[in-house]
Amino acid sequence: MNTIRGFLQQPSTKSIAYRFGLALSQHRASSAISADQVIDCWKCNHKHTCELFCPVCNSVQCTNCTTKKLDYFQVLKKEATFDLSAASIKQYYLKLQTHLHPDRYASRSQLEQDYSNTQSALVNLAYKTLSDPLKRGLYLLSLHGYGLDSEKVESSDSKLLNEIFMLNFEVDECDDKDEMKDLDLQVNKAIEIELKEISEAFQHEQYEMAREALIRLKYRTNVKIKIEDKLFEM
């Protein structure tokens, strides 16, 4: 039996179980699964660690079981860390969505169709959250008890607020494409610094520092979006 990129490979077995159900025990980067995350398959009653698919009968599992017991990192079988590449997240996401595609369940029971649709929505949400550095950082903070609403992120740092105000003013006043590209480069460099600080803060379990850096990232990301929108119109 060989392990390839986190999946058990058996020459005689091509079931979803080996690709998804049993992969958890071999995947080097999954979040830890606790004892209370053991569930019974709704179809065959096999007990297994909470998965999207049963490792025995391959049936897509009850949505209530997985959404209440699995975090987004576990859904996509990734370590609960800030340092994830978009490419590594996308690879497993596409595999899951292939096996949750509606065409695969067209001849199945209405219950299984409903489960596959809602599981697909869960996978989509997990992917959108973890593939975006800001959303991933905020979500990771929430798992450590430092919840922060992305829609209500505010800073009382007068220096930061003044810097962002001046940047927004420059963007508003800029009518030259080359100058706008320079501003874009300036903001990109600042974002890279924030990403590095966020990574280091999480590595050292300094969640307050991560929180402050994520707030700064939110402000800088908003400026970047504004720059990109204006560049598109130029």
UniProtKB/TrEMBL annotation:
Matching CDD domains: DnaJ
Name of protein: J domain-containing protein
Originating species: Clytia hemisphaerica
Molecular function per GO: ATPase activator activity; protein-folding chaperone binding
Gene3D superfamilies referenced in this protein's UniProt entry, alphabetically: DnaJ domain, HscB, C-terminal domain
A family per Pfam: DnaJ
Keywords assigned by UniProt, alphabetized: Chaperone
Superkingdom of this protein's organism: Eukaryota
Residues annotated as transmembrane: none
Keyword Transferase: no
A single GO cellular-component term on record: mitochondrion
Record lineage: Eukaryota, Metazoa, Cnidaria, Hydrozoa, Hydroidolina
Domain J intervals: 71-143
Coiled coil: none
SMART domains, per database record: DnaJ
InterPro entries, alphabetized: DnaJ_domain, HscB, HscB_C_sf, HscB_oligo_C, J_dom_sf
Entry's family note: Belongs to the HscB family.
GO-annotated biological processes: [2Fe-2S] cluster assembly; protein complex oligomerization
